[in-house]
Amino acid sequence: MGGPLKMSGKKSPNGSRSDQEGTAEARRAPMREFSRSLPMSLLRAREAVMRQFRPSLRNHGLTEQQWRILRALTAVDTIEVTELARVAFLLGPSLSRILRDLEARDLIERRTAKADLRRGEVSISSKGLKLIEAVAPTSEAIYAEITHRFGARKLAELQDMLGELERSLAAMEVAGEGEAEADE
Amino acid sequence: MGGPLKMSGKKSPNGSRSDQEGTAEARRAPMREFSRSLPMSLLRAREAVMRQFRPSLRNHGLTEQQWRILRALTAVDTIEVTELARVAFLLGPSLSRILRDLEARDLIERRTAKADLRRGEVSISSKGLKLIEAVAPTSEAIYAEITHRFGARKLAELQDMLGELERSLAAMEVAGEGEAEADE
DNA sequence: CCGGAGAACTTAACATGTTAAGCAAATTTC
DNA sequence: GAAATTTGCTTAACATGTTAAGTTCTCCGG
After folding, report:
1. Is residue A72 within 8 Å of residue A89, measured between CB atoms?
2. C-alpha–C-alpha distance, residues A175 and A77, integer Å
3. Are B34 and A169 inside 8 Å of each other by CB?
């Protein structure tokens, strides 16, 4: 978020802005261009990508998350809820709600494991599979277009970097989990 | 949540998995490795980053979005709601709600423009400014740590690529806005 | 066995994402 | 210059994100 990397701040008055900004920047913390922080960059990039897919999914009555779930289910025969949450990258509560709805729409099937009654086993239904097959072509076409526009090589490179970023931070322990932070 | 995932092991009969997966993959569409799609990569990367900031923000009673708004407000004297939405990358309705809450907490001030009664002008309050100043140090430290772990050079490179991706897709018109999709 | 600790979800509660309406003020059109 | 249109928000409604509790069911030590 706050991403300032170079608060060194060029003092030079911002040439042609509506002068209020110059005033504000002068008397306030010269934090770095907020919009260039890593979180914002990632957010905007992802939105730019998802913006391409949402209309198509919407036309088929699916949200992004529902699609992720169905999509993940096509790769397995059955999967436990916790595993599915990990794969589809959804928090338990969200998944719980979505599965309830998808089941009501007969897009998935669910049953409890016989070995452990706490666990639920989920699988896609034939109706769900048909839906996936109906959406997939458009989805693939969009993905191909994105790849073409950005460049396959660069895309692969970007994904490598994203993976590296993930791994870099995986080990980074999260600060002040519950305290009120030393100062202030 | 989420994290490494290693389901579906290509076509090769997955040596040690519970064999159901292999079966599923064999009889179903061999779609792209779901977890390696660009949207998922971006989502996981962003989550890995935000995971570092949320606890600190939470300790100060702020959500990620509220922080974005206050953060954006420190860069200007006043700003119109629509402009703020653009800068903080929030949709109008979300912003509308959040501003209502932030105003109730006296973290921001709002008034209508005299020239155009439809427009609202927002600015951060002294209380809001104090809050920002209280959070900023921790936030900056986390950002610095992330930069250190991933590498300043690579970080800059990553952000360049993200910006490029954004620009690549900016011109890409969104398909089938409202139709039911030719077929497929 | 039995009771407590832990695991696997599910519910609850509140905040935001997302699309569609609603509304009042400003602008355009005829 | 009044009606039609557009603009700048705000509401509404529904889905998901996020954290805390609650509910069953397992498992484990005594």
Report:
1. no
2. 39
3. no
For B90, the 3-state DSSP assignment is coil
User: What whole-number distance in Å separates Cα of residue A89 and Cα of residue A101?
Assistant: 18
Residue B142 falls inside a structural domain: yes
Give the span between the Cα atoms of A171 and B105, in whole angstroms. Answer: 36
Domain containing residue A59: CATH number: 1.10.10.10
Chain A neighbors of B48, CB-CB under 8 A = 165-166, 169-170
Residues, chain A: 184
Q: Domain span at residue B85?
A: 36-162
Chain C bases near protein Cβ (<7 Å): 6-13, 15-20, 24-27
Q: In a structure prediction context, what are the per-residue pLDDT tens digits for chain A, which is 184 residues long?
A: 333 333 333 333 333 333 334 444 444 444 457 889 999 999 999 999 999 999 999 999 999 999 999 999 999 999 999 999 999 999 999 999 999 999 999 999 999 999 999 999 999 999 999 999 999 999 999 999 999 999 999 999 999 999 999 999 998 876 655 454 443 3
Give the ipTM: 0.84
How many alpha carbons lie under 13 Å from residue A39 in its C-beta half-sphere?
A: 24
**Residue B90 vs residues A38, B21, B66, B94, B124: alpha-carbon distances, Å:** 16, 40, 10, 6, 17
CA/C1' separation B125–C7 (Å): 47
A116 within some domain:
yes
In a domain, A46, yes or no: yes
Closest to B63 measured CA to CA, from B54, B72, B52: B54
Neighbour-count burial of A36, counting CB atoms closer than 10 A to its CB (0-12 exposed, 13-18 middle, 19+ buried):
middle
Residue type, B95: L
A66: exposed, middle or buried (Cβ count in 10 Å: 0-12, 13-18, 19+): buried
| 3-state SS, residue A79 | strand
Residue A160 lies in a domain: yes
Number of domains in chain B: 1
